[in-house]
Give the backbone structure.
Amino acid sequence: MTTFWLDWLKTPMAAPETAGLRTMRLAILYLAIILAVMIAALSPLRAAVGVAAGGTVCGVMLALGLLVPVYVWRKNRADEEHFAAVCREGGADAERRARLGLDVDAVCFDVGIDFSDDTRTGLIDDLSRGGVVPGKEARGELRPVLRRLSQDAQ
């Protein structure tokens, strides 16, 4: 059985990690560990440094609150650029088909239906020939049809 997440992980979306993204990811990881240790040891920390213990915890939380959204934005941008570059090698149709594939997988996962690879490819071919544009509209059109198929199969 193939799941949506497994198929999604196989798609060429993850850009190679740059040194800057790696540094940010590791900083987030270390800050999260430091925050967990600080919270677990708040009483001894408060005894050692006094009232500044709360401020230190807040500072680490603030750093995480600022760093995580920046990292997510930069990582998503890098992934989108990488995905577009990979699809450009196969042409605009390859990108559109790949995005339609993600839409099909997402709706199948939501509805709880599992297609064979041949059926999935055929569905993507039909959608592509029909001029369906990937995105919310495609998922909106697919959901009732696949829900009906799922109910008929049961």
